[in-house]
Design a protein that fits this description.
The complex is a heterodimer of chains A (671) and B (157). Chain A is α+β, with helices and mostly antiparallel strands and 671 residues long. Chain A has 22 helices and 10 strands. In chain A, 54% of the residues are buried. The chains are: A alpha+beta (671), B mainly alpha (157).
Chain lengths: 671, 157
């Protein structure tokens, strides 16, 4: 029956897929035009040529969107004449995962990559009405060049539209671990972040060609960076959350090369966000900001290289797929080499206007930038070191969590320590004592609370108390910063003014507070996790911290496309039932793969996390139980950071004042 | 293995590989654990720094692989036999090479890795300071030409 249906349907499907393939080739041609004509036009000051960039960017986006829709359609109707669909789908798979299967593989995820790239290009056209035509033409041309490179990469080495001569009756299914809502949306968010940084890159290269960076440039480039950073934050948090609930031991970050690949651009983008403020407000740090914009996208490309080539994971993966790895390396070399050469030649032209004192907001932001950039490079060195050691020093070694914890954490601690000072510091010239005055209560409170925690948890690591101190210091600092912005006067008036503060002020406080919450949650989870591993007979009970857990029953359950061994576990506290949880072990027959489904009781102060293991030879079941303190605070902290970014993004000055370049005023009001 | 997704950010491929290290057993098993609480705690702490050789960047404490289980048992045997932490780890390094260590020892070329961060921090701070001085950063109180022009403008009004 299904065969008959497929045969009837085949005609229409085939045409749509072919059209999608054709649209992709056409998009390449349009991208070539987009990368050449506006650039030449801007050089010759030919308005007609410059204007080509607008329609080209929009048409390129529409073509790639059509191509993406065609591939999605092939997944939805399970067109098994496409080798990609066969490898990653199955007729019985739920619809959500048929669609997420489009980007759940190398070729499809690259199509998503170029789709988002083209989307950002089109957005530059739609939202960039106020940009000077020359700058816009150059930005679109650079964006077009990136498009050419990646479209070529797809069509030459990773074409998603390749056919099979003999289509099979059904597909091989998607890895069951990826059939999960958290992971369905994790890649699109990450890509929006990675690729969003291409806009900052294009603006940077365009500014270098023009030899001109001013306050207006800073104001144009910041929203794009901010948007990319928000998406990266959400994407990383989603991935971390998924690892937490799916992997079965409550870990949330592993310093895996693939994770580091997303973390490095996040760090550099965070630095760029802050230095772009200095360009916008004070016309200083121009060359440095340009360099960061180039590096941020460079790390996105490195991330793509790490994930796509598999070279860091294993040197031998390179030999398996040299074509793709070499191609991405080539793209990386051309864009980074080109941009950095341009930077070396032109950076001298960018003269700083605003001078600042050693103690000032600018200096604090420089310190922020150095710490963030160096920490990103520490992650980078650690990630590539196994490769370097093997190729250069002939040592086969590993660099894992203990190294990163030791080498990376000090930078976070330093960053958290200076953050509240820096945020309170006035532009140009400040006074440490004056900035510290409103912060004294926060410092006293956080240190005394940290000391209290230290005293209560005798004998455990200092990590917990340090997390309490730093987290409270940063959150309290953000609140004090917001409060001092309301000026002086009666309490009522200040509260009223709080609501009228610019969105950027709120965004800053919320994002900084989110960082504080995240720092606290990470140290709390690492320091205070309770773990219990044991064999429990059915009907048996055991103590887990203040709770008493009973293994009530274990039974076999049939799922839609899996078989499950499900335990029923009752959690009691002081004789009252807290919850009953059902941890599972599943087997997906089509993919032939087992998974562990932990059962989690989410709470404000703690998660109870239960995992059922294997039956034991002499009766009973292996059971792992955890109390994860403040787990929700981690995701909450990340969300707060993202929310802060969104608040800043909606600030009035980006909505209205992104217009003409104007001379900077002298007494720029504090942010 | 076209079905293995090398995904966007986290560690799907790791999982795929970890799961291929069948038969799956779930990290530390109750039957492996030592009755002596102090020894078991030492074993757990050491396990966190030892790599499951067939997995991707996973320590033997978290790993589901059979090999990781063998390593965990081997490590516990050494500790029960009276090895110090350093001796037990050295025993594993002798057998499996320094690849088994997740924390690369700061010896030989690895010194580069360990000092890279602090060195860059010092260099960055140095460059920032030199640039700051060269730009005459402490002449903040003096107005720059733009500001002088603006002051003149204001005074004229």
């Amino acid at each position: 029956m299904r065969l008959l249906f497929a045969a009837i349907d085949m005609g229409g499907v085939r045409v749509i897929v072919e059209l999608g393939h054709f649209a992709l080739i056409l998009a390449l041609a349009v991208a070539v035009i987009q990368s050449v004509v506006p650039l030449v036009g801007a050089h010759r000051r030919n308005a007609a040529w410059m204007a080509v960039g607008d329609p080209a960017a929009v048409v390129q986006f529409l073509l790639i969107a059509f191509s993406f829709a065609a591939l999605t359609y092939a997944f939805v109707v399970s067109d098994f004449s496409l080798s990609l669909v066969v490898g990653n789908s199955h007729t019985l798979k739920p619809m959500l995962y048929k669609i997420s299967g489009v980007w759940g593989n190398h070729e499809g995820s690259l199509l998503l990559w170029v789709l988002i790239l083209a989307l950002f290009g089109a957005c530059a056209v739609w939202f960039g009405q106020n940009l000077p035509p020359q700058l816009k033409a150059r930005v679109l041309a650079v964006q077009g060049m990136i498009g050419v490179a990646f479209l070529l990469f797809m069509l030459l080495t990773s074409n998603p539209f390749l056919r099979l001569a003999v289509p099979p009756l059904d597909g091989q299914d998607l890895n069951p671990l990826l059939q999960d809502p958290g992971l369905a949306f994790h890649p699109p968010f990450l890509y929006l972040g990675y690729v969003g940084l291409s806009m900052s890159f294009s603006f940077a290269v365009a500014a270098l060609i023009e030899g001109r960076v001013d306050a207006a440039w800073g104001r144009w480039v910041r929203p794009w960076t901010l948007a990319a950073w928000v998406f990266l934050t959400i994407g990383i948090a989603l991935g971390s959350w998924w690892a937490y609930y799916e992997l079965g031991w409550g870990g949330f970050w592993f310093w895996d090369p693939v994770e580091n690949a997303s973390f490095m651009p996040w760090l550099i983008a965070a630095a760029l966000l802050h230095s772009a403020i200095v360009v916008e407000k004070r016309e200083s740090l121009k060359a440095w900001t340009i360099l960061l914009a180039i590096l941020a996208f460079g790390f996105s490309l490195i991330g793509t290289f790490i994930v796509r080539s598999g070279v860091i994971t294993s040197v031998h993966a390179f030999a398996n797929d040299p074509e793709r790895g070499v191609f991405i390396l080539l793209i990386l070399g051309v864009f980074m080499g080109g941009a950095l050469t341009l930077f070396a030649a032109r950076a001298g032209v960018l003269e700083a206007k605003g001078v600042f004192g050693m103690v000032s907001r600018e200096s604090a932001l420089v310190a922020n930038n150095i710490l963030l950039a160096v920490s990103a490079f520490v992650v980078f060195f650690g990630t590539i070191w196994p490769l370097v050691a093997e190729l250069v020093f002939d040592r086969k070694l590993s660099v894992g969590e203990p190294f990163f914890n030791a080498a990376f954490s000090p930078f976070v601690v330093a960053l958290a320590m200076i953050l509240p000072f820096g945020a309170m510091m006035p532009w140009k010239r400040g006074d440490l004592g004056r900035a510290m005055r409103p912060l004294w209560p926060v410092l006293l409170l956080s240190v005394s609370l940290g000391a209290l925690v230290w005293a209560m948890q005798t004998g455990r690591s200092a990590l917990g108390p340090v997390g309490v101190i730093l987290g409270l210091w940063v959150v309290g600092g953000a609140l004090v910063d917001l409060w001092t912005r309301t000026g002086r006067g009666a309490l009522g008036g200040r509260v009223a003014r709080l609501g009228r503060l610019p969105r950027a002020d709120w965004g800053k406080a919320v994002a900084h507070g989110g960082l504080g919450v995240t720092i606290f949650a990470v140290s709390a989870m690492l320091a205070w996790k309770t773990e219990d591993i044991r064999v429990v007979p059915v009907g048996g009970s055991y103590a887990l911290g203040p709770y008493e857990v009973t293994l009530v029953d274990v039974r076999e359950v049939e799922g839609p496309n899996y078989q499950s061994t499900m335990a029923e576990m009752r959690v009691m506290r002081n004789g009252a039932e807290v919850t009953t949880l059902f941890p599972e072990k599943r087997i997906y027959p089509v993919a032939g793969m087992p998974t562990t489904e932990a059962a989690i009781d989410y709470g404000f102060l703690r998660d109870i996390y239960l995992v059922i293991g294997d039956p034991q030879e002499n009766g009973g079941w292996a059971v792992r139980s955890y109390i994860e303190p403040f787990a929700n605070w981690l995701w909450g902290g990340c969300l707060l950071m993202a929310l802060g970014g969104v608040l800043s993004l909606t600030d009035r000055r980006y909505r209205v004042a992104a217009g003409a370049r104007r001379a900077p005023t002298v007494g720029v009001p504090a942010e | 293995m076209t079905g293995v997704w090398q995904g966007g950010g986290l560690k799907p491929a790791l999982l795929a590989i970890a799961l291929l290290c069948a038969p799956p057993v779930l990290a530390v098993q109750p039957d492996e654990m030592l009755a002596d609480r102090a020894l078991e705690d030492r074993a757990r702490a050491l396990s966190k720094g030892l790599r499951c050789l067939v997995c991707r960047n996973e320590n033997i404490d978290d790993s589901d692989a059979q090999l990781a289980r063998d390593l965990r048992i081997l490590l516990r045997e050494r500790l029960v036999a009276g090895d110090t932490d350093a001796e037990a780890v050295a025993f594993l390094v002798d057998r499996y090479g320094e690849y088994v260590l997740l924390n690369p020892p700061a010896t030989g070329a690895n010194i580069l890795l360990w000092i890279a961060g602090p060195a860059m921090l010092i260099a960055g701070a140095g460059i920032a300071f030199v640039t700051f001085r060269r730009r005459g950063g402490d002449g903040v109180d003096a107005l720059n030409p733009d500001e002088q022009a603006r002051v003149a403008e204001i005074l004229k009004e």
